[in-house]
Specification:
8-stranded mixed β-sheet; alpha/beta; Rossmann fold; single chain; binds 5-O-phosphono-beta-D-ribofuranosylamine; globular
Amino acid sequence: MASLKLAVLISGRGSNLQSLIDACAEESFPAEIVTVISNVHGVKGLERAHKAGLPTVVIDHKEFKDRENFEDALHDVISGAGADLVCLAGFMRLLTGDFVRRWQDCLINIHPSLLPAFKGLHVHEKVLEAGARFSGCTVHYVRPDMDSGPIIVQAAVPVHGDDTPDTLATRILEQEHRIYPLAVRLIASGRVRVENERVIIDGAVAPDAGMINPAED
Ligand code: GRF
């Protein structure tokens, strides 16, 4: 099977980018990264990409007169690199409906909660404030509304009584690094389709392949 070409969009640390770099380094992994795009100069994620020998581009949103111009540049770089799938990995710019529709079902994101709960920023603080017993992470197709769209893979983690936002974030991040490559692998293997705004994997609506329960490891 031909390798699925990924554009990975980052704004910072890039640990999820690293999980994709590591997955793509495995010979049997059905995807490859063709470009890493950051909207911020000098971030750690760019360093990771350089180290892996990947092409990088910085598209600084501050250099554009408006969101549309910025997104046109983004679109051109992604298309020019020949990417089939755009992976948002800690990309901290909201994308307009126009951009999202141009990449309909070819644009995915990772979010550190069990969506649709706890959208937006300061997720772990909100989880602790709410007294939720479980949290986790989600890889989903992107839709124009923030942190919404058909769910591809989720992993759940317990919330402990003595958790701080940092300890919870660390427990969840570990699972993020498992589910992002898993979601890409499922898509790249042609096992995922979207039907009525729900993801079907291998023909099933609530597939085992789309759930990681670390408690069962
Ligand atoms: C992750 O927690 C991701 O879920 C969220 O932003 C964070 C990015 O971390 N969207 P990193 O840059 O991948 O290390």
